[in-house]
TrEMBL record:
This is Thioredoxin domain-containing protein. It comes from the Eukaryota. InterPro entries: Thioredoxin-like_sf. Transmembrane segments: none annotated.
Length: 132
C-alpha cells in the first residue's frame, strides 16, 4: 500500500471505539492520540488532519464528535472543547498544555506525555440485562 492511499485521520464512534482502539485492553492496536470535539471547536480538525499525516505509520490519530457520541463523552469525562487524550498501553494521558500547535502536539506524543498524570482507561460499559 502506498502512503497516500492510507487514510491518516480516523473517525471513531460509540459503536467502534473499543473494537478499533482496544484502549481498555492495553492498546494492542497501537498508540492513539484522539481529539474529542464538539461543533463549536470543529476548526481544530484541520490541525488534527495535519497531525495525522505527520504521524502516519507511527501513531494512530483520530477524532470523536462528542455531540454525536455521548457514551464516549461520558466514559472519558469530556468536559471541554477541544480535549485531546493520548491512549497508550491501557493508560490515558490528557493533553493539558495551553497551546494546540503542531510542535507541541508532536512533542507530547513523542515522549512528553510521560510528564502528564496517567489514568487507567475506563472499562467499556456493558448494558445491564435483567432476567425475570
Amino acid at each position: 500500500m502506498k502512503l497516500h492511499d492510507e487514510v491518516a485521520l480516523k473517525r471513531l464512534y460509540d459503536g467502534d471505539f473499543e473494537h478499533l482502539t482496544q484502549a481498555s485492553t492495553g492498546s494492542t492496536t497501537g498508540d492513539w492520540f484522539i481529539l474529542f470535539y464538539s461543533p463549536q471547536c470543529e476548526h481544530f480538525i484541520s490541525l488534527w488532519e495535519s497531525l495525522a499525516v505527520r504521524l502516519l505509520q507511527q501513531k494512530m490519530v483520530a477524532v470523536v464528535n462528542t455531540r454525536d457520541n455521548l457514551h464516549l463523552k461520558e466514559r472519558f469525562q469530556i468536559s471541554k472543547c477541544p480535549q485531546a487524550i493520548f491512549f497508550r498501553s491501557g493508560k490515558m494521558y490528557e493533553y493539558v498544555l495551553p497551546s494546540f500547535e503542531m510542535n507541541s502536539l508532536l512533542n507530547f506524543v513523542d515522549g512528553w506525555f510521560k510528564n502528564a498524570p496517567s489514568k487507567p482507561v475506563p472499562p467499556l460499559q456493558t448494558p445491564l440485562f435483567v432476567s425475570f
